[in-house]
Amino acid sequence: MATLQDLKRRVRSIRNTRKITRAMELVAAARLRRAQARIEAMRPYADRMLELMAGTARASASLRGLPLLQRREVRTAAIVPVTGDRGLAGAFNAQVLRRSFALERRLRDEGVQVRFAVVGRKGASTLRFRRYEVDDAWSGFGDRPSYADAQAVAHRLAELYVDGDVDRVVVVYNRFVSPLVQRVTEQELLPISEEILRRGEEEEQEERALRGDFIYEPEPEEILARLLPVYLETELYRALLESSASEQGARMTAMRSASKSAGELIDSLTLAMNRARQAEITQEILEVVAGADALNA
Hints:
- By secondary structure, the chain is an alpha/beta fold.
- The protein has helices at residues 4-59, 92-109, 121-129, 147-162, 194-197, 201-211, 220-296, and strands spanning 76-81, 113-119, 134-138, 168-178, 181-190.
- The protein is built from 7 helices and 5 strands.
- A 5-stranded mixed β-sheet has the order 3-2-1-4-5, sandwiched between helices.
- It is elongated and about 115 Å long.
């Protein structure tokens, strides 16, 4: 049975741990608010980019010469799991990796070769621990991703696709719903679907009727060839922002749960410590009474 000093030492240690978890919860909450604000600020830009691409695509005579739109037989696919650089975030990293491994098994069953390009230190270390070959890895920007970080990832993935090294690129990330809910999402980045270019056609046609038609200079095909890589960068940037917000929400929830568990453990240990102290006092009283009875006898 633990002594009184052991119980005091454990209570002191758990209180110190609870201070750390509470501080991490507050830090994660502040970062989550900033991440949500960045997502809200980016959405109008992404929507406008999609509208501009759709209008340019409709004005183009042909889309066959654009390499990022070209579909071909899928022999090699690249999976891009977006994880964090640190742990202590509940199931945030594990659920992305589980979905990535399930996707890999599904693709291999279809006879498709799989390559991994991972974002985040946790994902890269897990893949290497399981003896997977990691072709590309990016890290160091999980808490606050910038557009330049998304550009670096997008340029490499576009290069792999245009050179024919991969025939399909799928990104797996946590989509932010709320601090308590993060949904794992699979999104096919490459090839870019032509259906995306047809979204919002009716709205864009109504707006064009009000503003008049456009004269394109240079040709629409050339403009679209420049817009498609920017669209790829924007989609990756959105995925990085969603993943960052999801990580902070998961960490905040995990640290709150840890603080609550620490409080419950402190209460139970305090109760055990009080019982041990009471038992010591009772034992001392019994020894004094027994000694007095022995002297009187």
